[in-house]
């Protein structure tokens, strides 16, 4: 069986990112290999990842005058109980929500601003 390299390359060019991700996973499973980058290349890739960050941690930096409203907002955002939410507010500055998208981060910061608190996305 002859391998048509150009045909394979053309198919890869037309594939979606999800299809390519599935292809990589299938190859890893079939041949027992990993597509992880070598350590030296991983360091360079990490620098690129910081430039286009897609995951943010939200830090409550200042509570403001309306502590009770901030506790309620933190509780709503995190789904934690009253005591845990109060502990977060009392411990400010503190990261309380991790791994959120840019849109979610903007929404959370806006909610906290509405009740007089200050938050930042890191």
From TrEMBL:
Pfam family, one: Ribosomal_L12
Domain Large ribosomal subunit protein bL12 oligomerization residues, every copy: 5-50
Occurrences of domain Large ribosomal subunit protein bL12 C-terminal (ranges): 56-121
GO function term, MF aspect, one: mRNA binding
Gene3D superfamilies: 3.30.1390.10, Single helix bin
Subunit field text: Homodimer. Part of the ribosomal stalk of the 50S ribosomal subunit. Forms a multimeric L10(L12)X complex, where L10 forms an elongated spine to which 2 to 4 L12 dimers bind in a sequential fashion. Binds GTP-bound translation factors.
Cited function: Forms part of the ribosomal stalk which helps the ribosome interact with GTP-bound translation factors. Is thus essential for accurate translation.
This protein's name: Large ribosomal subunit protein bL12
Gene expressing this chain: rplL
């Amino acid at each position: 069986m002859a391998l048509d390299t150009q045909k394979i390359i053309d198919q890869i060019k037309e594939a979606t990112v999800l299809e390519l991700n599935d292809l990589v996973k299938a190859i890893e499973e079939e041949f027992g290999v990993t597509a992880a980058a070598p350590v030296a290349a991983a360091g360079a890739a990490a620098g690129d990842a910081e430039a286009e960050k897609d995951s943010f941690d939200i830090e409550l930096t200042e509570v403001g005058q309306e502590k009770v409203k901030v506790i309620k907002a933190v509780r709503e955002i995190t789904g934690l109980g009253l005591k845990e939410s109060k502990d977060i507010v009392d411990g400010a500055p503190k990261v309380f929500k991790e791994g959120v998208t840019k849109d979610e981060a903007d929404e959370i910061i806006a909610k906290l601003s509405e009740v007089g608190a200050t938050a930042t996305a890191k």
